[in-house]
Amino acid sequence: MKLCPKCHKQFSDDANFCPVDAARLAPLESQSVVADTISAKFDVQDTLGGSRTGVVHRAVDKATAQPAAVKVIAPAVLALPGLAQRLERELKQLERVQSAGVAKVLASGKRGDDLWVALELLDGAQTLAEAIAARGPIPLDQASHLIEVVGEALIEAAQVGVVHRDLAPKNVLFAGADIKLINFSLPVPGDGVPGVAEFVAPEQHDGKPVDQRSNLYSLGALYYFVLTGHPVQHDDGVVRLPSTFADVPPAVEAVIVRALDKSPTKRFLTVRQFVDEVGRVARGEVDSKSTQAMGRIGKPKAELVQTLLGVRGGPGFGMTTEPDLISAAAIVGSTVSTQPSGPSASAVPSTVVGVVAPSAGVASSAQSAD
């Protein structure tokens, strides 16, 4: 018998390629040896989905009994120049991130020539893109708090040497009362620049190296989006002011416009400086010329989540129904692509770090394949 390394289905010895995903089949006995690197740590159960970047399996950590999602990354991803080593290194680095704002990477490793990763499984969640599409823009204090949480997640990831390359509304999740940043990403085979175009920094779009200043641009674009309900708009190459779409105070607008400058050197120096300034301005501390240490701002995160999910009514929302929850999964390459209507932008397939699991009793509107 032969085994498909992607979907793990078995076929007769006379078959050479998997009819499901066209992967080259391997003798079953050789696969059973390399599979031990996963099965030694995880009890692999059913398949959650797959894409051009690999196949995702539901699993349970044998040591902790914690639910997890294990993905074997597709050979086509690892074949991209310089990608295999960087991905292996960054996954190990992400295991060290303890921020509550980052979907946890539990483990990663090699299985023969394959690379696999196990991640936190999030049962039932909604993306920021879906929330804004359904409820509209959010109030300044809540928007500022969201930027604080996401910014802190970016800062902690940067401390272990990882830069998020696809910061966009589709990669910010609301799971229970938590805000989770997912999709520390890498390109899908055959695609161009990774990321949602409206949230990608100009230097990233031009194929130049990315750093925290690129994340800073994307974070500014995210702030623009949650306050206006629109992705960043341009007129003849100049950012259209967010006050065009919503009642955004001038001091807040100035912070956003600076973060969105085409030149990385004209933005804030660091994500920390930007996040501190967002908090300071949102609190009305507009007289100080220096960036001060940021305290907690606005309403508690639980209230932000309740507002976005429509549990609690508020200006621009007016809904008290239960949230529509994602019911399909995404991990390193299976994007959550629910395709919300309106300005929330289409989801561009990318390699994902983060998982959303099916929520019982909720109709599926998401897909886990590219």
Work out the radius of gyration. Answer: 21 Å
Largest sheet strand order:
4-5-6-8-7
CATH topology of the largest domain: Transferase(Phosphotransferase), domain 1
- Give me the CATH architecture of the largest domain, please: Orthogonal Bundle
Overall mean confidence score, pLDDT = 74
C-alpha end-to-end distance: 29 Å
Domain module tally: 2
Which structural class best describes the helix and strand composition? alpha+beta
Helix content: 25-40%
SSE run: EEEHHEEEHHEEEEHHEEHHEEHHHE
Characterize the biggest β-sheet. Answer: 5 strands, antiparallel
Question: What is the CATH homologous superfamily assignment of the largest domain?
Answer: Transferase(Phosphotransferase) domain 1
Sheet-strand content, in percent, reads 15-25%
Estimate the global geometry from the Cα principal axes: elongated
How many individual helices? 11
Low-confidence stretches: 30-35, 288-300, 311-353, 355-370
Q: Quick one: CATH class of the largest domain?
A: Mainly Alpha
Describe this structure in words.
There is one protein chain. The chain folds into two domains: 1-34, no CATH class; 123-357, Transferase(Phosphotransferase), domain 1 (Orthogonal Bundle), CATH 1.10.510. α6 (140-159) packs antiparallel against α10 (271-282) and α8 runs antiparallel to α9. The protein is α+β, with helices and mostly antiparallel strands and 370 residues long. It has eleven helices and 15 strands. 29% of the residues lie in helices and 17% in strands. It has a five-stranded antiparallel β-sheet with strand order 4-5-6-8-7. The longest helix has 20 residues, at 140-159.
